[in-house]
UniProtKB/TrEMBL annotation:
Gene3D superfamilies: Hypothetical protein, domain 2. This is 3-methyladenine DNA glycosylase/8-oxoguanine DNA glycosylase. GO terms for molecular function: alkylated DNA binding; DNA-3-methyladenine glycosylase activity; DNA-7-methylguanine glycosylase activity. Coiled coil: none annotated. Keywords: DNA damage, DNA repair. It comes from Compostimonas suwonensis. GO terms for cellular component: cytoplasm; protein-DNA complex. One of its GO terms (biological process) is base-excision repair, AP site formation.
Length: 329
């Protein structure tokens, strides 16, 4: 393969093959502002054993099913703050083109004012490299969010790992052992009922994933909508028009797929309590959380991410959600 170069905003790109990585493509992204890979990309992983994302001593690994095929992406931070990217697979070039958006190149924090709140002010100072990631893969963000509905994180992560490991495809290139690529919409549609059962996903959630898969390709069109408030509202409307997709699920998907700076996962088991304790020192319900976040309308997700980036969570004094496992029945 001959060397090629392209001019992209904020990127130096050289696509070239190495003898031991014949399909590798490479780029260097030089962001305008500091970017922390860990803070920016941590929300993309679905638990510590997610087969589509891996953190190791070489950096961050991620697989995706792009519009032009499967791909594996590897990112690492260079000494000057630039991000070195390598990608493999049919979708490698698409993945490299998407690196700036993935790392929040369009995510503008300049108008966020948290100066009146000490915790948020301190978190913003210590989390200067935090950006909202944007994957531009809608169904890839929606399916796991559906699987996470009304169950514990442990249950959802276990189900996600089993389904992707069995029905996804091998990660291209020299990816860490066990990495898999998100199944195609066609693959999701072919999963039989007993496989959902073995994965611990009840019929209500499995049917919602299958319904979303039927319109999976058309859902990707929301990526072309304007990234302003009106466009994001339209994106949420389109997602919640899918049976089985409510406001919480749509918010979880849009936070990752479009880097929505305002969506709030209303109905989350812990979120309201965490926000309440962070902002006023006591737990609140969803209505109380929305009232507390109202001063930052348009940027509420940024505030939430700051709370968690600062390592803050509310005391866990209430009853734990029961983990149910009916796979053997």
């Amino acid at each position: 393969m001959s060397a090629r170069s392209r001019s992209l905003p904020g990127m130096d790109v050289a696509l070239r093959a190495r003898p031991h990585e014949a399909a590798a493509r490479e780029s260097v992204y030089r962001p305008r502002h500091p970017v922390s890979l860990r803070l920016t990309l941590r929300s993309l992983g679905r638990g510590p054993y997610d087969p589509t994302t891996v953190w190791n001593d070489t950096g961050f690994w991620r697989t995706a099913l792009t519009p032009i095929g499967a791909a594996t992406l590897h990112l690492r931070t260079l000494s000057d703050g630039a991000i070195a990217a390598r990608a493999w697979g049919d979708g490698a070039e698409w993945m490299l083109d998407a690196v700036p958006r993935l790392l929040g190149s369009d995510d503008d924090w300049s108008s966020l004012d948290v100066s009146a709140h000490p915790l948020l002010r301190d978190a913003l100072h210590r989390s200067a490299g935090l950006r909202l990631a944007r994957t531009d893969r809608v169904f890839e963000s929606l399916a796991p969010a559906i699987i996470e509905q009304k169950v514990t994180s442990i249950e959802a992560y276990r189900s996600w790992r089993r389904l992707v490991a069995k029905h996804g495809t091998a990660a291209p290139g020299p990816a860490p052992s066990g990495m898999r690529v998100f199944p195609s919409v066609e693959a999701w549609r072919r999963i039989p009922s007993w496989e959902w059962h073995r994965a611990g996903v009840d019929p209500r959630r499995s049917q919602a994933v299958l319904t979303a898969a039927l319109v999976g390709h058309s859902l990707e069109r929301v990526c072309a909508l304007p990234s302003d408030a009106e466009g994001l509202r339209e994106a949420a409307t389109r997602l919640t028009s899918v049976p089985g997709v409510g406001a919480w699920t749509a918010a979880e998907a849009l936070q990752r797929a479009l880097g929505d700076p305002d969506s709030v996962s209303v109905g989350d088991y812990h979120l309201a309590a965490d926000v309440g304790h962070a902002l006023i020192g006591s737990a609140v319900d969803d209505d109380g959380m929305l009232e507390l976040l109202a001063p930052w309308q348009g940027q509420r997700q940024r505030v939430i991410r700051l709370i968690y980036a600062g390592g803050f969570t509310a005391p866990r004094r209430g009853p734990r959600a029961t983990i149910q496992d009916h796979r053997g029945h």
